[in-house]
Amino acid sequence: MLFLIIILLIPVINAQGRGRACGTMQSYFALRDRIVGGQLASDYAWPWQVYISLNGQFICGGTLITREHITTGAHCIVGQSNNPSDYTVTVGAHNQARQGYYAGTTYRVASVYVHQNYVSAEYGYDIAIMHLSRTVDISDTVNVICLPPSNYNIPMYEPVAITGFGLTSEGGSLPYTLQQAIIQLLPTCSSVYGGYNSRTQLCAGIQGGGRDTCQGDSGGPLVYQARKSDQWVLVGITSYGAGCARVNYPGIYTKVSAYLSWIQQVISHHPPITNFYVSNRKEGFCVQGSILARSKFYGNSLSAILDGAARLTLLSRGEDYVITMPYANCKGILIGKLTMELGGKVTIVCEKTRYSADIEFKLKPFIGGQELTNHIEGKIRLEKDVIYTFSGHWDDEITMVEKATNTKSVFWKVSQSVVNSRLKRYVVPIEQQQDNESEKLWQRVTIAIKQNDQISATEEKTIIEDEQRRQIKERKATSTEWHPRLFNIDSNTKEWIYTYADARPWDAHNDISTYENNFVICTRTRHRAHNMNNTNKSSSRSNLTINPVRQTSTLARGPSPSLNNIHDDHSQSITPTNLNQTSLFKSKLTEDSTAILKHLETTLNRINERLDTHEKDLNLLKNNRAKNESNQFSYILPYTQYILIIIVAIILKYIFQ
């Protein structure tokens, strides 16, 4: 039996050797064992640490984030050399002086990317990426670091690790051997450094001094290991500071989570962020959000992680609920049954109502029955107080328990009617898609994969990626900035917002239906109405002739609402949520326009006649009201006199007494 278990574990061991998890290392090192000063790193430690040389001379540190890319500081590149071939990167090195296993492997640099907003380290954006000329081999001394999710926050005073080949003291000498130290995240940099920005930078060091990064450590990693985890995460990039290890002068580090979007755009050949918008004004809600997809391989399982959040807006209430995403986990890649599950923790927060929910999607354990599949648990809070708990299976039944009364009720039940009510997926026919839509763009790759032709799939993929690189290079050469058409960045929240969002509550008296027209969600109305779109206040509305309802735009694609029950009434119109209507409708003067103008003139004359009648009625009401007021006053006048006489009599009686 033992022999059988060993045989079964051999593929797993081999798989782990080929696909090692990010942020792990062979050397044992724990942040919470003890506080250490600057000391020599042990063998096999910090396998993502690299050092950069310019024309053979060591200048900076860096961190291996993929098998082809490293991060470093922008100030390590700017003012040095614009030629990538002048740089080399050494990975897996533990000692710069000696040759052998721990001397590492040197790679040439194919290209260098510096953040476009970088001016100097003091003003932030101190980040650069180097693309290596060939793929790095993962080994005991070489591994990639984990990147943090976009909302990754570490509590103040938590211990973090710094490593590098820099000076061991201010004005000192190079150690030639990799150094390590433990410091803390601190809240004091804003009072020391005038340009410090807590949203894009981290403050770390020891308040009493004595431990810090120094010259030569620039561009190197600031890493963190969460409790009960064996994976390290790259949270910062060494940037600048006042001297080295001075009292009350911590170091400044570039906050990696603030630049995830830029990093993914550099290391990926296609837009990494997926923005989406769902509108159902008739039911009273809309959803929009952004997702940054990434994956992790664990040997026998694979996780597709969705960093980002969705914002659910209840239009009639004006409430926003921010929802994070679970991850998809695939098990049984090498051994066992291939299964797909949802995992991870999801939060739902509403700032207006102060309600929040924590939901945990639990993965089925290695030993357990089917009843543990698709299991979730969670709590609903009002501020910090738990008011409900719930548990169950998201694909079957979830029960809720009220905390105050311990009353149990069914919160969610998947019945056949629920299954039948699911919306059917609609895919736009490929011939109607634009050239840069993903299904059409990658159709040749998809066909090759379905035919199990991996060589053709790779060739077609390379063609697409080369063309994307060429377009990026062309835009960079002509200083042309890429402007997305459907989504834009909100200057306050830094969130991607759908350009044509319509947050008005549904008006049952005026709104008829909504439809999509060339990616723009429009509303068909009975009367012309102003769009109260808050996401595009700077846009102006043009006085254009609107196509009647019975006409269909030539730009429309996909399913459109049935128009059979809508009569040809000139009082009805199409009100697109897009304020720039010139891109949607072509105005032209026809006989229909003349008829419409005549109809409007007749309607205005009738309105004027009614206004005259209403004015006469108002004058008559004013006269009657004046008469009634005078009558009422004459009616109560005797009683008023009696009251005054009584009051005067009482006063006189009091005086004479």
From TrEMBL:
The region annotated as signal peptide is: 1-15
Lineage, top-rank taxon, reads Eukaryota
Q: Which GO terms describe its molecular function?
A: lipid binding; serine-type endopeptidase activity
Coiled-coil region: 597-631
Q: Does the keyword Hydrolase apply?
A: yes
UniProt-listed Gene3D superfamilies: 2.40.160.120, 3.30.70.3490, Trypsin-like serine proteases (2.40.10.10)
Where does the Peptidase S1 domain lie?
35-268
Per the UniProt record, which residue ranges are transmembrane?
635-656
Which InterPro entries does this UniProt record tie to the protein? OSBP_sf, Oxysterol-bd, Peptidase_S1_PA, Peptidase_S1_PA_chymotrypsin, Peptidase_S1A, Trypsin_dom, TRYPSIN_SER
Q: Enumerate the PANTHER family for this protein.
A: ACROSIN-RELATED, HYALIN
Which protein are we looking at? Peptidase S1 domain-containing protein
Q: Could you read off the lineage of the organism from its UniProt record?
A: Eukaryota, Metazoa, Spiralia, Gnathifera, Rotifera
